[in-house]
Write a structure and sequence with these properties.
InterPro entries: BSH_YknX-like (IPR058639), MdtA-like_C (IPR058627), UPF0194_transport (IPR050465). By secondary structure, the chain is of the alpha+beta class. It is built from six helices and 21 strands. The protein has four domains: about 120 residues, conserved putative lor/sdh protein from methanococcus maripaludis s2 fold (Beta Barrel); about 90 residues, Efflux pump adaptor protein, beta barrel domain (Elongation Factor Tu (Ef-tu), domain 3, Beta Barrel); about 50 residues, no CATH class; about 90 residues.
């Protein structure tokens, strides 16, 4: 009986001793040295982060050109091309016999003068746009607006330059018709202004009598309302299909729904992608996978998103400092993609972060003890280290103890 009481008293004393030591070690502000055992840690790295979403698309002709015949100009003679023919600017398309040769010359001269005036106006407009772009000044906080405005101006300039190119070809064709009438009065040959393929000929002479499909291709697709709101002109795009991978950018983005607004069905918004490289090997009609890049950061300092702790408006993570102690580090996070988060401020490449969960805030400033990873230790790894590096690590181990 007496021995039982002694045993109980002994157990109680041991329990009190253990509880007292735990309290003294773990209470806030305790001066007792503590060591945190860390099982998982890793070095901070840099990588490129790309935020994107996927869409389906189809390869389509960049443009279709339609050729018309005006019966008032004369009597139709013959077609000079057939469906499937590949043509270039200046290729003869069809012939007609003008009823009044002088009237036809007068018409062509008037057309020449009109085209020259249109070219002058367009070139003046391009000069004005380029001058306006050079005079733009944006504050630092207006960088997003600067990108949108300059992209819009570049797009307008590019469109005007394309119009100039088309008008120059049309002017050349008209002048060639005039020269032909002067040299060989009689039939008139209507020439093409474009490169492409003859996709359709209407032999009943119902306009348009000829349809030309351009050699250049675009990738066309459709966006939902939410996708349309996060998409803008000029965004980078990755395109892939069987046997093909390429990059491009969005050059056309509709603001109105494809089939009009409706309460009964979801609105879709057409968009077009122009590839950076020639993609003539992809047949028109080929389905493709489109990856639209909405945000991209090169060389971002990143960590796994799960190691970041959020507390109201602040974010932090645990770091092993240069002195080997735990540090709860305040950070500023940025873009988050596929479980990785950009660290804008508070962390640098090469620092060590802790992957373990459940580290108590009172461990801030305590020594960090990491497990010995034998799988990372091999004769090959050791022999690759310089002697100076080996002694540095050995001495650091003694000093830290």
């Amino acid at each position: 009986m007496k021995r039982a009481w002694v045993l109980r008293i002994l157990v109680a004393c041991i329990g009190i001793f253990i509880a007292a030591n735990l309290y003294l070690a773990l209470k806030p502000g305790s001066k007792v040295d503590k060591t945190a055992y860390i099982d998982k840690w890793q070095a901070v790295s840099k990588e490129n982060l790309i935020d994107s979403f996927s869409k389906k698309g189809v390869v389509s002709p960049a443009e279709e050109y339609q050729v018309y015949y005006d019966e008032r100009q004369g009597v139709f003679n013959q077609f000079l091309v057939k469906e499937g023919d590949t043509i270039t600017p200046g290729t003869g398309l069809f012939e007609y016999q003008p009823e009044d040769l002088d009237a036809e010359k007068e018409r062509l001269n008037a057309e020449t003068e009109k085209l020259e005036n249109q070219l002058d106006d367009l070139e003046d407009h391009i000069d004005d746009l380029e001058t306006y772009k050079r005079t733009l000044i944006f504050a630092e906080e207006e960088k997003d607006s600067e990108t949108a405005v300059t992209s819009s101006l570049d797009r307008d300039i590019h469109e005007k330059e394309l119009q100039v190119s088309m008008l120059e070809r049309e002017l050349e064709m008209t002048e060639n018709q005039l020269d032909y009438l002067e040299d060989q009065p009689g039939s008139v040959t209507v020439q093409s202004n474009f490169s492409g393929t003859i996709s359709e000929i209407d032999r009943s002479l119902e306009n348009p009598i000829i349809t030309i499909t351009s050699d250049a291709s675009l990738i066309n697709g459709e966006l939902t309302l939410d996708e349309r709101m996060e998409t803008s002109m000029g965004l980078k795009v990755f395109v892939s299909a069987k046997g093909f991978k390429g990059e491009g950018s969005i050059i056309n983005l509709e603001s109105l729904p494809k089939s009009g607004a409706s309460l009964n069905k979801e609105s879709t918004y057409p968009f077009s992608v122009q590839l950076n490289e020639d993609a003539t090997e992809i047949l028109k009609g080929t389905p493709v996978h489109i990856e639209i890049v909405t945000d991209e950061i090169e060389g971002a300092v990143t960590v796994p998103s799960k190691v970041i702790k959020k507390d109201k408006d602040a974010s932090s993570l645990w770091v092993i400092s240069n002195t080997g102690k735990l540090e709860r580090r305040q950070i500023e996070s940025g873009l988050q993609v596929n479980g990785r988060t950009e660290i804008k401020d508070g962390l640098e490449k090469g620092e060590w972060i802790i992957m373990d969960n459940g580290i108590h805030k009172d461990f801030d400033g305590t020594e960090a003890a990491t497990s010995f990873k034998t799988k990372h230790l091999s004769k090959k790894h050791l022999s690759s280290l310089k002697n100076k590096t080996k002694w540095k690590y050995i001495l650091r181990g003694f000093v830290s103890r």
